[in-house]
Amino acid sequence: MSSEKLSGNPIEMGTSFFDRPDVKLETIPVGEGIPLGLESVFDSRSGIGGAYGSWGKSFNNEDLINLIENWLDKSVQKEEKMNLTDLGFTSRHHIPLLSDADHLKLELEVGARILKEAIKSNGWNPSDIEGVLLGISGPVADDYVCQISRQAGIPESALKVSVHKACDGSMGALNLSLNPQLVSPGQINIAQELFGKKILVGGIEGLSRFICKTQDRNALQLFGNGAGVIGIIPGESIKFLVGKDYESYDEDGVLTVRMFYPHSGERNPGKSMIEISKDINSGMRVAGLMHEPIDNSPIAMSGMMGMVKLFVRTGVQVVSDVYNSYQALMHKVGTPEKSLTVAIAHHANFKINSLKHKHLQKIGINFPMPWLLSDFGNVCAASNMIAFLRQIPLLKPGDHVLFDGFGAGTYYDVMAVEIGG
Predict the structure, then answer these.
(1) Which residues lie across from 404 on neighbouring strands?
(2) Is 352 strand, coil or helix?
(3) Would 60 be classed as within a structural domain?
(4) Interhelix angle for 350-362 vs 304-332, to 10°?
(5) pLDDT > 70: what percent of the chain?
(6) How many whole angstroms separate alpha carbon 419 and alpha carbon 400?
(7) 3 within some domain
(8) Would you say 137 and 169 are in contact if contact means Cβ atoms under 8 Å apart?
């Protein structure tokens, strides 16, 4: 796999995230003990910091097959094995089978610890936080965000928002926190409410809890646990420029995902697939309709080519729309020479991102799209945030960054922002 295809930045090919020198390793006392690794990032120039990490045992591509065969209780055939290195992944993290009570205990502890670490990395106190917005594909509890916020010492008065838009979840959360045009009838304008306040935005994905129950060989090889949370002050450390959210129902069921969160399951043509509600602790839930597997399994994929067609074609159009809006804004404010420094894209897999980059170049849109998550696998809503935290040291105040989120459903959140300072 060439490291030059997306940005010229070398693809990180370490064997395990846990081996990185700045990772703080802990053991969560659940079951026989679950390893948790967290890395903190803070950039004093922009005032943006956060934390990211994973939990469970680290499996390289070869050992992963043994784990999957244990889950399936049958062999994975040669033709079923994916070339994971070419897809950009060298390892991912998984936990052993646990009871429901232990899963809840584990993920509450993981969530609370990463929120605390993100707060600490910014030099804030838990009492400073006025908003927590998290993307979560399959929450372990309906009020997960409220519970981990309370456990982290965040005030009850802080706005809590759970965003369930599969892999697009954290970008949906970031878009809501920055873009004042995203407001639903009868709901508060989240971006206006949080402007100038200290908030946490991210994605927390305990995927192996339910991925292990699928029979889909592709899903079993691609996904793993991961989390990334940033601390920002909208309008100060990150300034919104232009953005768009887009949804298009996956008619063919190319990537079907079970909804582990409250949703009516009803689809009304001409209306949004997003339902907004409150959880039992008065937190806010933004839940997207999914095309669910017919056998009620957690996830089913039609194949890699179907994934490419699902995400690349529409994804290129949404990015193109936002890019054109960005250029128009730059001309309007008198800086037509300004360009996007980098694009932080969801890391579905390297081939999807490479093809998307290639199609954008064909229509005259070109910016770096670094590949940054080889040691995590596809961690859904966490991936954009982990990638951003790894890119932060290379950014400087005034840089313009494109966030490109996409996920099953199908949902897209793309926005251009300015790094403050």
Answers:
(1) 345, 414
(2) helix
(3) yes
(4) 50
(5) 97
(6) 6
(7) no
(8) yes
